[in-house]
Amino acid sequence: ISGLFNPQAFLTAVMQVTARKNEWPLDNLEIVVEVSKKMHADEIDQPTRDGAYIHGLFAEGARWDINGNTLDDAHMKELYPPLPVVLVKSAMQSSAKESKDIYKCPVYKTQARGPTCVFTAGLRTKAPPAKWVLAGLALVMDVVE
Questions:
Q1: What phi, psi does 32 have (nearest 5°)?
Q2: Sign of the dihedral through C-alpha 59, 78, 42, 142
Q3: How confident is the prediction for the chain on average, in pLDDT?
Q4: Pairing, β 70-72 against β 138-142
Q5: Is the dihedral of CA 68, 72, 77, 83 positive or negative?
Q6: Can you tell me the distance from the alpha carbon of 55 to that of 8, in angstroms, rounded to the nearest whole number?
Q7: d(CA 7, CA 24)
Q8: In sequence order, which residues have a C-beta less than 8 Å from that of residue 95 and are 6 or more positions away?
């Protein structure tokens, strides 16, 4: 997804396919992410039935622990650890309150952040979401080192 000129259009297409398939109103859908344990797109064996697999996201302010399948503190001198392959799909908006073990992480096109926000990814965490807010955690699509 990081190589796309307009990643929002790709995510909208994922939502439209789900809406048409299930005859749901598009306005009631939201993007849901599931982080896999596979680090490279080559490791994906078959396509998904719902949504699409994406790769090319980097964490800024934390890292993804593959063994625990959750957010974790970044290692020293590791500024932008890559995220494993992510399944992006669409689901009906949840009217339930915020979950304690989900951090709503902003995903930006560039490191500059600002107006480049693409979507919000709900990532699993063992720590309270406030910890990641204070750490300034965000996912970035384009890293320039």
A1: -125, 135
A2: positive
A3: 91
A4: unpaired
A5: positive
A6: 15
A7: 22
A8: none
pLDDT at 97 over 80: no
- Nearest CA to 93 among 14, 32, 7? 32
Spell out a b/e string for 119-136, using b for 16 or more CB atoms within 10 Å of the CB, else e: bebbbbbebebeebeebe
Q: Which residues contact 116 (CB under 8 A, 6 or more apart)?
A: 108, 109, 110
Helices (runs of H) and strands (runs of E) counted in the chain: 2, 9
Tokens matching residue 74: 């970044």
Token pair belonging to 61 = 């302010």
Residue range 108-139, pLDDT digits in tens:
999 988 898 999 999 999 999 999 999 999 99
Nearest CA to 64 out of 54, 50, 78 is that of 78
Tokens of residue 121, six digits: 């990814």
Residue type, 144: V
Residue 139's closest CA among 97, 100, 84? 84
